[in-house]
Design goal:
Pfam families: RasGEF, RasGEF_N, SOS1_NGEF_PH. Keywords: Guanine-nucleotide releasing factor. This protein is α+β, with helices and mostly antiparallel strands. Helices cover about 55% and strands about 10% of the residues. The chain has 4 domains: about 1-50; about 70-220, Pleckstrin-homology domain (PH domain)/Phosphotyrosine-binding domain (PTB) (PH-domain like); about 230-400, Son of sevenless (SoS) protein Chain: S domain 1 (Son of sevenless (SoS) protein, Chain S, domain 1, Up-down Bundle); about 425-600 and about 635-650, Ras guanine-nucleotide exchange factors catalytic domain (Son of Sevenless (SoS) protein, Chain S, domain 2, Orthogonal Bundle). The strands form 2 sheets. Strands 1, 2, 3, 4, 5, 6, 7, 8 and 9 form a 9-stranded mixed sheet that branches. Strands 10-11-13-12 form a 4-stranded antiparallel sheet. The longest helix is centred in the N-terminal third of the chain and has 34 residues, at about 185-220.
């Protein structure tokens, strides 16, 4: 087996050995280099013996030892060769090759046909000469006709010893283990072909290894940043400003933030080295618990306006001498720091207006400031981001002016409204027993679905629904809570106000029928409202009433009771097994958020400094994320405004007092 390496390949190995930090790798590379040097010496000895005999006119082989100058010249050369080959099929040479290596005439052993060979870094093309062949009128003027081609990535090169059948030969072994043997006219030509072929075979691996090493070295070379006193986002990481989770290793390899200052959180939100979509979502969901929207916008604008690093004293001296020491560093800084940071600031703004526009609805000045900021952004790379943000803002403004739309298109039409004793338009006769239980359940489900889908994550983070400004910060959540409370009281009221036992049994049966429809509609909030009503002190003690409930309905009620047992274990399993639309039970989310908020501190102390506990915010965001995943799918049901039970509050203004009377 003859192995030949060009000088450039040997240099690659030597550079890898110099830069390797692993002692075992260094030793292996040294041994490999020694072997390669011996092989190189042998080749030089063989070549030197035949060099004196060689005359240029005697050899048809022209070996290009240097790369073409410029990609355009290389492509031009490849195109010229391809045009000169008749019967070419497949991709152009320029699409799969970057460099022309050599050409020459070889004999294909076996058939004993001469072939003109063109060797590129990606292809070996074998042609038959058209010289001396009769030309038909209108036929191609190409000098060569394509016979076969080999992709260099899919072949192996094997040296062949001289035999009686052939001399100066080498073998091309194909991927399917078939092979082709070519013979050169002299040992010198064979050496040239072998040197070129084996160089191509090994070069990609060695250059790839060297590229990785050089890239790693470049990454380890510290980029120069602005002075932290002028740009506080350039402050180096330390335990006093940011802490990462130790036992959490995500698949992405991006470190997970445990705690940090607000400046460090903003820096990581728009980090120059990588994008972190999960962190962006979590941050924008929870930031209001430690930062106001106006402050966030100010920080993002400040982050966007990046000063360039100042020259050092050595730089100034060099500049006085006419040098430009900062030129390469500034180019790298603009490309690897300024541009990615600014693009990620705009990405955060886009995500903010897309998913949390309520911040801007509540504060017109905030929206005006954002529009003024994006109006100042310049640059081709930024243009599409600015246009995207502007389009979203205009769409949100238009939707805000029109109001919420209920025009939803479904694959199939919604079912018809079910009527019972009461008929359409006779609202004065509507009550629990005169309306159809299916339609009562449907209309309540539609109402509760609207309440559930309207709740925003910002209404939950920081338990703001329990605090002083709850009416401002959690309006939709409070509607949901009050509706649930009042509907539960209304069911209790309907039962306990029915004095006749037989009639009370009918009322309880009707409520269980509604519960059954709730279950079919996956309205778990409605199911647990009825369970709560049945478990209330005023209703639970009505033993004689429950004794007369049909056994089938008792079973339905018992199954509903089981949903709330053992920390809602069966409810959670069922919720995760069904497909939306559904109305989850909101109470369990509120309980989990309260436990998380109260069981984890707002700040973590490190070296006497208080850092925002972002781990706590991440846990809350996981809960709000689960809430959101059930908010997208509406019900395919028709709203009947005459039946729609939207006035439960007015019906239950005095219900709590009445129920308390029955308990006492």
């Amino acid at each position: 087996m003859l192995a030949v390496l060009t000088v450039s390949d040997l240099q690659c190995s030597q550079q890898l050995e110099e830069k390797s930090e692993d002692e075992e790798d260094k030793e292996c590379l040294k041994q490999a280099i020694t072997a390669l040097l011996n092989l190189q010496s042998s080749m030089e000895r063989i070549c030197s013996k035949s060099l004196a005999k060689r005359r240029l006119s005697e050899s048809a082989c022209r070996f290009y030892t240097q790369q073409m100058k410029g990609k355009q010249l290389a492509i031009k050369k490849m195109n010229e060769i391809q045009k000169n080959i008749d019967g070419w099929e497949g991709k152009d040479i320029g699409q799969c090759c970057n460099e022309f290596i050599m050409e020459g005439t070889l004999t294909r052993v076996g058939a004993k046909h001469e072939r003109h060979i063109f060797l590129f870094d990606g292809l070996m093309i074998c042609c038959k000469s058209n010289h001396g062949q009769p030309r038909l009128p209108g036929a191609s003027n190409a000098e060569y006709r394509l016979k076969e081609k080999f992709f260099m990535r899919k072949v192996q090169i094997n040296d062949k010893d001289d035999t009686n059948e052939y001399r100066h030969a080498f073998e091309i072994i194909l991927k399917d283990e078939n092979s082709v043997i070519f013979a050169a006219k002299s040992a010198e030509e064979k050496n040239n072909w072998m040197a070129a072929l084996i160089s191509l075979q090994y070069r990609s691996t060695l250059e790839r290894m060297l590229d990785v090493t050089m890239l790693q070295e470049e990454k380890e070379e510290q980029m120069r940043f602005p002075n932290p006193e002028l740009y506080r986002f350039a402050e180096p990481d330390s335990e006093e400003n940011i802490v990462f989770e130790e036992n959490m290793q995500p698949k992405s390899g991006i470190p997970i933030i445990k705690a940090g200052t607000v400046v460090k959180l903003i820096e990581r939100l728009t980090y120059h080295m990588y994008a972190d979509p999960n962190f962006v979502r979590t941050f924008l969901t929870t930031y209001r618990s430690f930062c106001k929207p106006q402050e966030l916008l100010s920080l993002l604008i400040e982050r966007f306006e990046i000063p360039e690093p100042e020259p050092t004293e050595a730089d100034r001296i060099a500049m006085e001498n006419g040098d430009q020491p900062l030129s390469a560093e500034l180019k790298r800084f603009r490309k690897e720091y300024i541009q990615p940071v600014q693009l990620r600031v705009l990405n955060v703004c886009r995500h903010w207006v897309e998913h949390h526009f309520y911040d801007f609805e509540r504060d017109a000045d905030l929206l005006q400031r954002l529009e003024e900021f994006i109006g100042t952004v310049r640059g081709k790379a930024m243009k599409k981001w600015v246009e995207s943000i502007t389009k979203i803002i205009n769409r949100k403004k238009q939707a805000q002016a029109i109001g919420p739309s209920h025009n939803i298109t479904f694959e199939s039409p919604p079912p018809a409204i079910e009527w019972h004793i009461s008929k359409p338009g006779h609202t004065e006769t509507f009550d629990l027993l005169t309306l159809h239980p299916i339609e009562i359940a449907r209309q309540l489900t539609l109402l509760e679905s609207d309440f559930y889908r309207a709740v925003q994550p910002s209404e939950l983070v920081g338990s703001v629904w329990t605090k002083e400004d709850k009416e401002i910060n959690s309006p939709n959540l409070l509607k949901m809570i009050r509706h649930t409370t009042n509907l539960t009281l209304w069911f209790e009221k309907c039962i306990v106000e029915t004095e006749n036992l037989e009639e009370r049994v009918i009322v309880v049966s009707r409520i269980i029928e509604i519960l059954q429809v709730f279950q079919e509609l996956n309205n778990f909030n409605g199911v647990l409202e009825i369970v709560s009503a049945m478990n209330s002190a005023a209703v639970y003690r009505l033993d004689h009433t429950f004794e007369q409930i049909p056994s089938r309905q008792k079973k339905i009620l018992e199954e509903a009771y089981e949903l709330s047992e053992d920390h809602y274990k069966k409810y959670l399993a069922k919720l995760r097994s069904i497909n939306p639309p559904c109305v989850p039970f909101f109470g369990i989310y509120l309980t989990n958020i309260l436990k998380t908020e109260e069981g984890n501190p707002e700040f973590l102390k490190r070296h006497g400094k208080e850092l925002i506990n972002f781990s706590k915010r991440r846990k809350v965001a996981e809960i709000t994320g689960e809430i959101q995943q059930y908010q997208n799918q509406p019900y395919c049901l028709r709203v009947e405004f005459d039946i729609r039970v939207s006035d439960i509050t007015s019906m239950c203004l005095h219900t709590e007092i009445l129920v308390c009377d029955y308990v006492s």
